[in-house]
Structure formats: C-alpha cells, structure tokens
Specification:
Chain A is α/β, with parallel strands linked by helices and about 300 residues long. Chain A is built from 10 helices and 14 strands. Chain A has 2 domains: about 220 residues, Rossmann fold (3-Layer(aba) Sandwich), CATH 3.40.50.300; about 60 residues, 2-Layer Sandwich (Alpha-Beta Plaits), CATH 3.30.70. In chain A, α2 packs across α3 and α2 packs parallel to α4. The chains are: A alpha/beta (about 300), B alpha/beta (about 475).
Chain lengths: ~300, ~475
C-alpha cells in the first residue's frame, strides 16, 4: 500500500520550471530515495509535500486521502538547511518544536527523554544550543524531527555534519524507524548511502522525473555488459582471444593474478563469454559488474540532458 | 500573567491551544525572561523616580554654608541694614580695613567684601570682591536688597514731597499681576479650565511614547524574523505551522511584551506615588508650603503670593483632570496597536526578505521614514493643533499614530478622529496583506539581493 502519493505535480517560479508533471508513490514502511542534481526540483517537491509551498497543479495523497494542511503533524521533516535557536536550551527547544507538531507538553517530554537516553544526549538537556558542537546540534535536530512519531519522515541530506560514527548511528536509527513502521523519503547526493538504505528511488532532472523504480531494478537496468575477470596467464593471449567483440576498459597485471574489465559489445549470455575466454587463461573469477548508484546517477542525468538538448 | 501562562502550558489537552498561541507564548516568554527586558523595565521607573527625587532633593536643599561678608558702606545709607540673611552674616568695617583687605584677603575670615560707594544713589552700582566665584543666589540677594532700599527711599521722598495722606498704602494697592486663565468650550457649551502648558506636555509625551514603542517593538519583530531566517530554523517551523501563524504569533507576542511593560510601569508608578504620598504627609506638605510662602514673601513682601500658589497647584490638578483621560487611554491603546501592527508587519516582512544586516538597513529606512517625520511634526502641531500640518499628519496613516496622539490633548473634532482611525485600520490591513505575501516568499529565499522591484514582483506571485 502506498503511504504517500504525488500525482502530476507542476510548479513554476516566475520563468523557471521547478517541477513538471512529477508523480511519485512511496510504499508504506519503505525508504524512498529522491535523487537528482542540484537545482533539479527535489527541494521544491519536498516543500510541497510539507505544505510549505503549494503546487501549481497536481495532487498529494496521504494514506489514500487527499492531503490537508493539518497532515503536517504526521510528517517529520529534516531540511537540508537546518538550524535551531542558538540561545535556547536544548530541552526547552525540543519541547517547543514537538508541541508545534501537535504533541502535548507531557508527551513531548516523555518521548524526548527516551530519545535523549537512547542517543546518549541526556546531559545536554539544560545546555544552550550554542554550547554544543555542530555534530551534537545535528543530533538534537534529528531527534526533534522524529520525536512526534510521524508516519512519514523526510530527510534531506541527514548525514551532513556527522562524523562516521554518528553517521552510522543515525543510519541504524533510520532503519529502525522504518522497521517500526515509518515511511521515509530520503534525499541525498551520497550515492553510497542510497545503495545501502533505499528500497526505491526516483531521479529528478531539470524538473522532470527521469527514473523511478526499485533500487535493484534500476541498477540492473543500467547494466552495460561490463564484466570483471581475474585470471592467471598472459594479457596478450587474453587480448587476442577477446578479439573485436570486446572493449577492454581497464586491465592490471600482477605476478599471480591479472584483472581485466571488459565490455561485451554484441551482447549475450554470461556462459557464452566464459566459453570464449576459457581457452585463453586459467580463470580465477568472473563477475558481471552492476553499476553503482553513482554510475547510474551520472549516466541517467547525462542521457536525459542529451535528449533534452536535442528536443 | 506568568502564572496563567504556566497553568495554560500544563493543560493536558494541547489541541485546544492553537499553534499560533504556542508561538505567541514562546515569543512572549522568551522576551519577558530576557535580562535586557527586566533591566529596561526596572530601570525606566527608577530613572524617573531618581530624577524626581533629585529635583525634590535639590529644591529642598538649602545653602547651609555660613559666610561672613565684610561691608564697607561709604554712603552710610545702609548702616545696620545688613545684619544676617539665612546663613550669611554681615560685618561692617571701616575704610582702612577695607583697603587693607582689598589688597589681601588671605588670612581674614571674610568670604567677600561688599563696597557700597558714596554715590550709589546716582550711579546704581556697588561692588563685591571675593576670591572665589560667588553663588548667584547670594549676589542676587544682596543686589535685591540694595535696590529695594534705594527704591523705597526714593519713593518715600516723593510721597513726602507730595504730601498726600496714605499715599504709601494706596500706591502699594496698585500693584497687580494678572493671571490668564485659559478656558475651553466643550461641545456641551460648558467651559472647562484648560492649560496650554499641560496640553503641550501631554501632547509631546504621548507622541514620543507611541513613537518609541512602535519603533522599538517593531524592530524587535524584525530582528526576531531575521534571526530565524539566519539560523535556518524557519524551514522547520513553517513545516509545522503556516507562515501567517508564525508571523501573527510573533507580532502579538511582542505586542503583549510591550503592554506588559506599560502595565508594570503603571503599577510601579502607582506604588511609588502612594509611597511618596505617605512620605509627604499633609504636615510636611504644609511645611513645604510655608517655606514657599516665606520665600515668596522675601522676594516681594508687598505681594501676598501664597494663596495664589496654592490656587495654581489646585488649578493644575483641575486642568489635568479636565484632560479627557478615557479618550486619551482609548486612543493611546488604539493607535499603539494599529500603528504597531502596521509597522511591525512591514518590518517583519523586511526581516524575512533580507538575509543580512546591511540589506535590512537599506530597506528599513523607507519604512521608518514616515515615523521619523511624524516626530518632526510634533512641534508644528503644538504651535497650531488645528492647522493643515496637524490635520494631514494625523489623517495620513503612516504618521497618524504619533500625530493624532499629539493632537488629542488639544481636542480633535470627532469626524477627524474617525476618519483617521478608519484610514489607519484600512492601511494596517493592507500592510498586513502585503507583509504576509512578502514574508511567505522571503523566508526561504536566500542569497538574493532584494530591492523594491523584486518585492513588487513577489506581490504578483500566485499564492
């Protein structure tokens, strides 16, 4: 079941198109990656979901119902550009922000205490925000985003400002939130974390959605018949054997083990390729390379820019 | 107030409290708890109290230094005339001693040397020599005595020459002072005692207070908006509440801080006044009155000014009482709230539109310029409260909060007041509409140099 849906959303600022006919569906209890180059329209879409901006056209649905201003209480939003009141005490501020999301004071305190204990931040309660380090402030900000147990969480670059230890901690918390029932929209330029976390992605470029689907399927889709072979034997023989049907992308020669990365130009099954190379050398390993999210991103955006330029 | 808020905070049903109220409460408490607020709120009455105390102290303080003044009376007219005046003693000396002292006063006990020349009758001059600068009170005292003596003597001679019986008394009875009592014709045809001085003071005070409050609390709203934008917390907040709620909460919360401050000052004022009244019990007041009478009799014994003095005091009280206090209070609250709402929403919009202090300075000036102009209108209004400057100033909405308040103590025709109020309310609503649009767009706009043209473009955006 889809927890959130956006249907045919358009938004224009003056002469700039921010979103053109963008639709996304976010399955309940999944992590949805919203990707795209800078200025593609991601932040606009996120702000539309948060009822900060209204779309020119298109509709939003939460749990199948048309979305309403009051639904912001079911959303937790961690914006990319974020901050806290510097002079305010951490606890007091967290309570205030939780109350703005509709919690009562008591509920807010109860939930916050739990979170502060779990993330080992209880000592900060009475400190002013300006006394905390950047990473500590980010942690407070994370807690204030999730404290009201929102059904839908939107994280825009949640790991910026965190050291690797805290990044890992927050990653775990995000996964735990998903497992406990939350649905998450996750926007980032860190493609490693997309591979790690996202069940589903949508890629936006120049206001258009250019890719949408389960993360694995998309990566599969962008496979380009690239293979990595590890072998012992001479590179010359291997090169000859491969012949003109293969494009050698890179190769390394070592004493006991050579590595070669090739692209099969004709296309064919893996077994056909293995048969071709079997006579050439002693094969140690053979694997098809599935492109990283990074490669997918670059390739998809470049292709989309090309076709858009042709238009 | 704080207690009530606490109670409200502890309510178990938060949904009753709208989010605007949460923001309002947050803004209010944040400001009221600030050290600067507490200091300013306490300091201003203390400052006033201190000023009054200083004035009272200084007026009650007598020159208690004992001085001896040597008198060399060449004219011999004044022998025995100078003996003692307050703490000052006079001592007659012969010419030789005078010459000696004149050359060197050191070592003598005399504070000053008074030389009354033989021809004082014609020349009208005397001289006083001292090492130190003489207090002006002392020199005036002596000069007054000398003049009066000569004056009386001359008059006596003329009276004697004229030979008319009782002339002395009859001449004294000619002395008159006319006081001009200003009366104001009210609409019902009654005459009321008024005083242009009291109206003038009230007018200036009201104008300045409104100016001060609108300016101070308006800029407070602006700074608060700028802080939220700079901190980047604003996106988190407006993902929870609508920008208009945020703005309303902020503006109302800050207005309440201003009203709290005024309320505290009024309470402190009442307490201080009643304490002061206890301190200046009727007896002490009588004593003070007597000393005033003595003083005035010294100044001019021929005049009996004391009753007049009492009468003046009671008249001032009457005149202040005749100021239309309910009208003044009502218009004060009305023009403060409307003026504050108009200016603070515009300043709040500026705070949202800019993202650094430099740009804000440029944008503030065109908005606050009319406010500054309105302060400059105070003097022309005082000179002619019915004139065209006063009329237009108090009708045009941007200057009317200050200008109309300055006119109120002089009395304003009802239709002008209503016209001014209606125009102010309409333009305040307009200002809020404009401000809300700019605010909404500006809050999330970073890195863009904002000018008037840009702002007008924002107004045309679809919402």
């Amino acid at each position: 079941m889809n927890l959130f849906e956006a249907k045919n959303v358009y938004k224009v600022f003056g002469l700039t198109k921010a979103l053109t006919d963008v639709s996304i569906s976010v399955k309940e209890q999944s992590i949805f990656g919203l990707l795209g180059p800078n200025g593609a329209g991601k932040t606009t879409l996120i702000r539309i979901i948060n009822q900060i901006t209204a779309p020119d056209q298109g509709q939003l649905f939460l749990e199948g119902r048309k979305m309403h201003q009051d639904d912001v209480e079911y959303i937790g939003y961690l914006p990319e550009e974020r901050g806290l009141y510097k002079k305010m005490k951490v606890g007091e501020q967290a309570i205030y922000l939780a109350q703005l999301k509709g919690l009562s004071r008591q509920e807010a305190i109860r939930n916050l205490k739990k979170w502060f204990e779990r993330l080992e931040m209880s000592d900060w309660w009475n400190k002013k925000v300006e006394e905390l380090s950047k990473g500590m402030q980010q942690k407070v900000q994370f807690v204030t985003t999730v404290v009201h147990q929102p059904k839908l969480l939107i994280f825009d670059e949640p790991f910026s400002g965190f050291d690797p230890i805290n990044t890992n901690l927050i990653k775990k918390e995000i996964l735990r939130l998903r497992d406990e029932g939350a649905t998450i929209i996750f926007s980032t330029h860190n493609m490693g974390s997309v591979e790690e976390l996202c069940d589903h992605i949508a890629l936006i470029n120049k206001s258009w959605k250019i890719e949408d689907g389960p993360t694995n399927e998309i990566r599969q889709k962008y496979k380009s018949n690239v293979f990595e072979i590890k072998y012992t034997g001479s590179f010359e023989t291997m090169n000859k054997t491969l012949g003109t049907h293969f494009n050698i992308l890179e190769h390394e020669e070592h004493q006991n083990e050579n590595r070669i990365r090739v692209q099969y130009l004709n296309g064919g099954t893996n077994n056909e390729i293995i048969q071709t190379i079997l006579p050439a050398a002693e094969i140690l390993a053979f694997k098809e390379i599935i492109p990283s999210m990074n490669d997918v991103f670059i390739k998809a955006v470049q292709e989309s820019n090309k076709t858009k330029n042709h238009e | 107030m704080m207690y009530l808020l606490k109670q409200f905070r502890n309510q178990t049903k938060p949904k009753i409290m709208s989010k605007t109220f949460l923001i309002l409460q947050q803004e209010y408490l944040k400001r009221v708890k600030k050290k600067s607020f507490i200091i300013l709120t306490l300091l201003v009455p203390l400052l006033f109290a201190g000023m009054f105390a200083a004035i009272i102290f200084l007026s009650m303080y007598d020159d208690k230094q004992e001085r001896v003044i040597a008198v060399y009376d060449e004219s011999t007219l004044f022998l025995g005339e100078f003996e003692q005046e307050g703490y000052t003693k006079f001592h007659y000396i012969p010419m030789e001693e005078y010459s000696r002292l004149k050359a060197n006063m050191k070592g003598s006990n005399y504070y000053a040397l008074l030389h009354i020349p033989g021809n004082i009758y014609n020349q009208n001059t005397a001289q006083i020599i001292s090492e130190k600068q003489l207090p002006i009170e002392l020199t005036e005292q002596i000069s007054r005595r000398l003049s009066r003596f000569i004056e009386n003597d001359k008059r006596k001679k003329i009276i004697d020459e004229a030979g008319i019986p009782d002339l002395e008394k009859r001449l004294s009875s000619t002395r008159t002072t006319i006081r001009l009592n200003t009366l104001k014709l009210s609409e019902t045809g009654e005459t009321q005692k008024s005083s242009s001085e009291v109206a003038f003071i009230a007018s200036y005070a009201m104008g300045f207070i409104i100016y001060f409050f609108v300016f101070m609390y308006g800029s407070m709203v602006m700074r608060s908006v700028m802080e939220e934008k700079k901190n980047r917390i604003v996106e988190v907040i407006i993902s929870s509440v609508k920008p208009i709620q945020l703005m309303a909460g902020k503006i109302i919360g800050t207005a309440l801080v201003g009203l709290t401050q005024v309320a505290i000052w009024i309470v402190v004022g009442i307490v201080v006044l009643s304490v002061a009244q206890g301190f200046f019990s009727p007896e002490t007041t009588m004593q003070m009155g007597q000393s005033i009478m003595e003083n005035s009799q010294q100044v001019n014994p021929a005049l009996t000014q004391a009753p007049a003095n009492n009468q003046q005091i009671s008249e001032i009280i009457e005149v202040v009482g005749n100021l239309n206090i309910p009208l003044i209070l009502f218009t004060f609250v009305f023009y403060f709230l409307a003026g504050y709402l108009m200016y603070s929403s515009l300043l709040g919009a500026v705070g949202a539109a800019v993202d650094n202090d430099e740009d804000s300075q440029q944008m503030i000036l065109p908005i606050t310029f009319p406010l500054i102009v309105s302060i400059m209108l105070l003097f022309p209004i005082a000179r002619n409260p019915e004139g065209p400057i006063a009329f237009w100033g108090s009708v045009i909405p941007f200057t009317s909060p200050v200008a109309m308040l300055a006119r109120i103590p002089y009395g304003v025709p009802a239709w002008e007041l209503i016209l001014s109020m209606v125009l102010l309310v309409l333009s305040t609503l307009g200002a809020i509409w404009v401000a809300a649009r700019i605010y909404k767009i500006g809050l999330l706009m970073y890195g863009k140099k904002v000018n008037l043209k840009e702002l007008i473009k924002w107004l045309r955006y679809k919402s």
